[in-house]
Amino acid sequence: MNMDNITDNSIIHDYVITHIDDAISNEWIKVYYQPVIRALTGQFCSAEALARWIDPEHGFLAPDKFIGALEECELIYKLDCFIVEKVCRELHEHILAGKPAFQVSINFSRLDFIKCDMLDMVEKNIEKYNIPRDYLHFEITESMIAQDEELMRDNIQRFRERGYEIWMDDFGSGYSSLTLLQDYDFDVIKLDMRFLFSMTEKSTEIVRSTINMAKRIGIKTLCEGVETKEQVEFLTLIGCGKFQGYYFGKPQPYDELLESMVSKNITLESRAWHNFYEIASISARHTDRPLDVTEYDGNTFYTLFMNDPFKEQIGLMNMDLREIDKILYHSASQNVNQFKKFADNAIKSKSLESFYFTNGGNYFQLKIMYLAEHENKYLLRASVNNISFDQNTKERDSLDRRLRELNRLHEAVLLINYKEDIIFPLIGGYLYLTDTSEKILTFKKGHKHFAQNSIFPDDRDEFLNFINYENLQKRSHSDGQTFVKKTFRIKQRNGSYEWREFALLPIQGTRGHEYLFIITKLTHELTMSLDNTLYPDFNKYTDHENVTADEYARLWYSLITSSSYKLFWKDKDRRFRGVSKSFLEFYGIKSVNDILGKNDEEMHWHVDEGPYQGDELDVIHKGKTIYNAPGQCIVNGVVHNIICNKIPIYDKGEIVGLVGSFADVDQEIYRVLKIANPSKLDTTTRLMNNKFFMMTMMDYAAQYNEAGKNYAYIVMHNKNHHRIEETYGSKVAAALLKEIGEKIIDVISQEAVATRLKEAYFGIIIYIDSKEKLEELAATLKNHIEEINSINGNSVTVRMTTACHLRSEEGLSDETIYPITLKEVDDKEGNVDN
To answer: Is residue 543 part of a domain?
Structure first.
């Protein structure tokens, strides 16, 4: 009996409820896939998974016959969990067979999150089938959020933190779509083409505005239900990112879909290029300003998107993109070599560059912005202005007059564009950046250079917070304050520091992206007041003895704030009372407050704590002076050989503490003898290289055998490394290795030594006294590293296999702990050849 012929809904309802488990276990439920096409390239970039129930007794059961029944009886989670498992299995089988695999979006119900931990279920299937996380996206609806905001907010955040995209389906069908975009983080919004069914002026404007609004806030766009060529052309023109609908393909089983795409000459977008074209898609949008998005490989330009205002400026209206490319970029074009030079300069600077050229008797200004690159192909965004047609001469002259007025009031005025990463002088040039050879600086590079070289050391952190874009936005949102100003000390040409007022003024109409950065001199009275308030008072005595003390104080202040000496001083209990700036920088400690009141043992940064502890006790209790005492310390997982000097501090003849300094031996040898300093660092990460790590293991072994100090060895391996390298190339793979190294440093700090053993294998050695603590540390490292889900915008799924052993475990020796632990990792992965 065909279910379509049954009019009694209760019969269908009861059949679905009583047979859902059979349908899942017997796989009467099939997964069909409907293709999603990228607008800019016409490539097949993903698909939506849709459930189809093909019953052996009743035939095809339409989704509207069973989904509602499962929702009503709170059994929908069984279907959705099955769909996740089935999609992962099919992707795994195709990847294993070397067949094409594509990203898939899966629909979830609110009841799914109530009935089970959906993230845990997804993660288990991802791990079981070894599928990259970016192959799965999840669709939810506005109504799901409206029914339980807290439940959905928590789950959206959890999924996105693990690297999954969350898509809002049927955007605009509810009553509070815009509020949801403000309160929740979505990666994609899906619009239904029911909006454009009649293609009225009102409906097209709604879709145009929605897509523009989404792109401005960084959300990607997809229109489903696309069925006509007219809809495709309109959506492409207004910058819609992706299409889904019967115009491109109906829902089909996996292999049939692939065959259908081949028959229609629609190619599959490579996973390696996904991020590249996502950036291109979100950059293409409807605007009244000239806009062009182009690929460039160092020789050939290929336009992906060009709006009508751009075509109008260059006088090439009513032409398709391939015709325009032939005119602009063919080998006989008089400007093609200029365009290549312009593009190369923009790629080199990785910021907005302006160029001028003539063509057909017209004078043009071309602005090019580097967006992304992959495998020697570059993505560029451009705008063009035919200056010959520019009618804004009066406005330009008015602006010039205003700038001259500002010149009388302020020492320097610069334009900062946070979005385009530009800092550009309007008045005063690069007054305090005269030692840079670059004509136009990126903001990221320029403001750090300025802080490091021109701002008074004590003011640098505060200055960086002052100019930070996120802090500006927070201030604006919290109290409506947009204009901010603050005083800082700035270095003059003669080397002295003088007070200046700094102000950041937002430029109207730039959506908070552009600011005027203004530097203004202060009055003499205000300068004196600030000096008296913030500088140490070294001038309050007139007698010779106290004047000498004041001079010593100035010397000491200069040494601890500005010298390269790594100085420290401690109280009678060997607890830190203070350290110099260079000391903090050497250890990577952010604030002196992180070390005050602690001793060396609590900082865990010596390989052998005994000698230094003994030296300090001799200084404090016997008045000894220690010169050039050798030792080893750990900095960010790397062992450094150091020499240390320590002398007692006296107060009225009584020892009240000690003061000391230390130096890195290898750096000192290089400084004095100009001998090349052999790096202890791995060339890819900031961890110790294998050679020096093995030497350090000998030191740990000596401590175990001579002092009974137990140590442990941890080996970790990212088993997905080769897949990531094959997909994205060696640069992304190397960047991931570096990020894994940073994650390891986050966890071990100064307490352990870490290395990259080979490829994606990492080793860690640490003093530790129990297996329970060791396993807890290994689990913490694994979890922290596996939080990595993106490298340079490319989605990655990291899976760390770990093994760990204490030296004191039965059957282990200093010689065997390393190979046994490494073999255990390989055995877990089945890597018999490693």
So the answer is: no
Phi/psi at 531 (nearest 5 deg)? -60, -45
Domain end, chosen from 230, 249, 283, is at 283
The verdict on 510 and 572 lying in the same domain is: no
Burial class from Cβ neighbours inside 10 Å (0-12, 13-18, 19+) for residue 187 reads: middle
Cα separation, 503 vs 568, in Å, equals 37
Q: Are strands 136-141 and 362-374 parallel, antiparallel or unpaired?
A: unpaired
Q: How many domains does the chain have?
A: 5
Q: What is the CATH number of the domain that holds 507?
A: 3.30.450.20
The DSSP-derived string for 702-762 is HHHHHH---EEEEEEEETTHHHHHHHH-HHHHHHHHHHHHHHHHHHHTTSEEEEEEETTEE
CA–CA dist 559, 521 (Å, integer): 29
Is there a domain that residue 680 lies in? no
Q: What band does 170 get if pLDDT is binned at 50, 70 and 90?
A: confident
Q: Are residues 743 and 772 in the same domain?
A: yes
* 795, 133 contact by CB (below 8 A): yes
Of 441-450, 453-462, 589-598, least confident by mean pLDDT is 441-450
Most confident of 411-425, 553-567, 765-779: 765-779
695 and 651 share one domain: no
Going by C-beta distance under 8 Å and a sequence separation of 6 or more, which residues neighbour residue 111?
71, 74, 76, 77
Angle, helix 118-129 to helix 76-96, in steps of 10 degrees:
20
Nearest to 616 by CA among 654, 651, 560, 659: 659
Polymer length of the chain: 834
* Cα gap 79→698, rounded to integer Å: 57
CATH of the domain at 79: 3.20.20.450
Residue 358: per-residue pLDDT: 74
Mind giving me the DSSP string for 465-489? HHH-HHHHHHHHHHH----EEEEEE
Tens-place pLDDT, residues 667-722:
777 666 655 556 788 889 989 998 889 989 999 999 999 999 999 999 999 999 99
pLDDT at 197: 63
Residues 815 and 764 in one domain: yes
Q: Are residues 181 and 252 in the same domain?
A: yes
Instruction: Of 80, 54, 59, 73, give the one whose Cα is nearest residue 13.
Output: 73
> Does some domain include residue 270?
no
Range of the domain at 47: 3-263+275-283
Measured at the alpha carbon of residue 155, what is the angle toward residues 149 and 160, in degrees to the nearest 5?
Answer: 125
Considering just the CA atoms, what is the radius of gyration of the chain in Å?
A: 33
**H helix intervals, 270-420:** 274-283, 308-314, 321-329, 336-349, 393-409
Report pTM.
0.78
- 470-508 residue pLDDT tens: 888 887 766 556 678 899 999 888 788 899 999 998 887
Residues 311, 312, 315, 318: is their CA dihedral positive or negative? positive
Say if 834 falls within a structural domain: no
Q: What are phi and psi of 26, to 5 degrees?
A: -95, 0
Residues contacting 582, CB < 8 A, separation 6+: 563, 564, 565, 566, 567
- Same domain? 222 vs 146: yes
